[in-house]
Structures are given as C-alpha cells and as structure tokens.
Amino acid sequence: MVMLFALMLVIGTLAGCSGKKEVDGSSSVDSSSEDISKVKVFKSHMGIGKLPGPDDPHVKKVLEATGVQYELMATPAGADPAEYLNLMFASEDYPDIFRPIGGFDQTLISQGAVLPLDDLLPKYAPHVWESIPKEAWDVVRSATPDGKIYYVPKVYLVPERAALIRQDWVEAVGMDMPKTVEEYKELLIAFRDKDPNGNGKQDELPTSGREFGKWMDHLFAMYGVAMWEGVPEWDIYEGEIQYAGVSKNMKAAISFIRELYKEKLLDNETFLNKGEVWTAKINTNLVGSWYHLPGNLRDRHNAMLEGAPDAYVAGMPLPKAEGFEGYITQKSMGEPEWMIPAASEENAEAALKLLDFFYDPANNELITYGIEGAQHKVENGKKVLLPPTDETPIALGMKNLVTKEDMDIRIDQTMEDYQKQMVKDIFKVSTADARRIAGDGLPSTVYQGFPDIQSHKLFQEYLTKIVIGEWPIEKFDEFVDRWNKAGGEEVTERVQEWYERVNE
Fold this sequence. Notes:
Largest sheet: 4 strands, mixed
Distance between the termini: 50 Å
Mean pLDDT: 90
Structural class: alpha/beta
Radius of gyration: 24 Å
Low-confidence stretches: 1-27
Number of helices: 20
Oligomer: single chain
Number of strands: 18
Strand content: 5-15%
C-alpha cells in the first residue's frame, strides 16, 4: 500500500503538469511518436516548481537536439528520498539514470545492479568523458572492488562552501574583520549587543546553525576539522588519515562552540532549526555569521535587501586558533552523481546521450537560462533569470562539474550587477582558505557492517548535549572510546587501506 500510494503521488504530479499554464516554445519533433527514446531521470531534493511534462518547451528543446525525451522523476512531497529510491528498485520501477543517495550506490554495485560505464562513456557521452579529469575517474575506480567505473562523479574544482559574514554589520559595530578566534568572539559579542541590524531590538543571532549541528562548519574549520555540512570527514591527523570526529581538533572546536552557545553568541535554537527556519533567519537580517554556498547567494541577498538596503555579504578569512591550522573543507571529486541500472541497459545509449547534452559547452546558454517565460525573461535585450515558483516548471539539468571558469561565467550570467563582484570576492577568500581533504572520494563501502558509524548519530548526540551544556566537555573522551568500540577502529583500518591504494 505504501508503494502504491507513493507511485500514485508521482503519477498525479506528472499528470498535473499538463493542466497548468504553458510557456512559449516549439519543436519539430513529435513527442508522442513511438520512435523517440524516452529516458526517465530520477533526482531528489528538488527545488520548488512543477515537474515538466512531455509538452514542456524545455523538454521539447532537448528532444529536438538529442532525439531523447527527458522524463524528470522526483521524490513525492513528504517522502524520504533514500527510502523512496529503495522502494523504486524493490518494486522494479527502474529509472533509466539516477542520482544515488545515502550510500545506495555501493549497495547496487555489490549486487551487480548497475552498469559499468568504462566502454559506454567514451562512445555515447564524449563530452562527459573528456571534461571530467582523469584524477576523478581514478578516484571512482578506487571505490569499486573490480576497478571499473560504475558512476559519473560530481566534480567541483572550486571551493563549494564558504564562511560568510555581514560586512555591513562589521562596519555598524565599528570593528574589523577578525584575525583570531578571540577577535571573532569579540565581534560576535558586538553583534549580540550593539543592534547592527538597526531595528532597535536585541534580536540579532551572532552566528547560527541547523539541527544536528549542520551548516555551522566555519566554527569547526577554525580548528582544522574536516566537516561537510555538519558531518565529520576524514583527513590527516597525527600523520595518518583519521576520522575528524575523534581528533583533538574536534574536541577543541566543540569546547569553543560550547562557549558561544552559553553566551548566546550561537543561536540557542541551532539544534532545533529546520532548513527553512534557518534560511528565513538569515534572509530577514537576523544572522551575522554563517556557512553556506556563495554560488547560491543571489536570492538570499535580494531577500536581505528588502529589509536592509545596505546589506552586504563578505567572505570571512578563517580566524586563527592558536595551535591549529584552519581550513575550509573542499571535496572536489569522487562523489557519485549519475548511475544507470543494469535493468535499464537497453536504454543506456539514450541516457548517456541525454547526459552528454548537458556537458556539451555548445548548450550552455539553454542550460543556464532555460525557456523564456518559465526560467527567464528578457529585459533591455538581456536574459534575466526568474525566481522559481510553484507554478513554473523546474529547469532541466544534469551537469555537476564546475571549474573556476564555469563559476565566473555563472556569476556573470546569473547574479545581479550589484552582486557580481561581491560573490567573486567571497570565492577569492574561500579559495585561499580551502583545502582538499585526504578523504575526498572515500567509498561508503568502508562502513559496511557498521551503519551506526556511517550515520554519525553517535557523534551528533555527543555534540548536541555537550554544546547545550547538558554534558561536560570531558564526555568527549567517552565518545571517542565508544566510537572506536562500535566499529570505528575497523572502519579506520579500511579507510587507511583505501587511502594507500588510491595514492599508489
């Protein structure tokens, strides 16, 4: 019954796409023809908007160029993406190409349920094959027992995340950008007490994060802790690749964060904040320092400007913590991005042809701007991106490869004129502080048999209770002991073996 209900939701969503307003677009290819190839593309974590149907002009444009009809599938509202993807495979309702979630890639590889792509990519997706660096393909091969390529990796050759700060707040309290953690704390105190948002209330949140301690990586980064959206990663500690969660760096970082929480310098609702609540606090000029994606700053900054005309976001160079070397965690390559089920082998050529369209530089303009009236409008002869709405179709896309040149073009094409230099300056700062961690591309197979270690739930429990003051900082040593006994020691041995192999 759960499976049928979930599938009915998808069918209902797709059916609803045809009954909404249309935007301009035409195609000489008949989308109802039985001769065309149709490729089901599964994604999760979609933004707002409706799923485009076969009559959508964006779908028609891609069809005209490739002979392939893009059928976008997504997780139904309220469903867990990982559970839903498992449900699809369990019911043999296979997509033709999909983004794996939560280690599902390695499960499928071990079961022989996905296609090896070594021979198919050069033949049917040459732009994908040639644009992704050899180093990334080598990382992908190192993650599989037979050394074959089972997925197209995400490649991000610029730092994706950054420590962000309200420059206008720094100026409002009459201070400079902090150079040490002590100066950073003094700045946060000024944010708390001196009304930098100028509304006459003491409602400022000097810095903030989200539930489970996510998206406050800047506070860990100052202490040289490898973190990715609040999850400890693997990097070199004391001469060997180790889990950052059990390092002395982590203990020092948690101790500092605990101080901030106690003095209300860290939003005391951090461990309760859902994503939309945290975002709303930032957008409504309540947060002074946070951690996020500078490439996605356009709409957030515009929201700030509605209540604060002088709002200006800067990249914050990481303040120095005595005895530690801070850095922004960079994961550049190796994360699974696209896989093809073995059961969809007959449609693999069409799926890769579709994927290749989005990696072909000749199609960048359509990929960036989409369709006029749906994803962009034309003002004074210039294409301007429209904010997404519930009524407009989700823009089609499949490429997840970003170089510095790509990012510069993206900033110039998608940011407002008053934001372009601001965002470029943020990337300069984050690039100077960023470091690619040793565990970049680590396969999830290292956690096999130890789901509790893979989930990081033990770490999140200790982090939360120590920071909010329920437990003393000395409890961290207990966490390290429990983590090792729960399988951490064996997982560490596997990670170290992988690291030696990938660096041979």
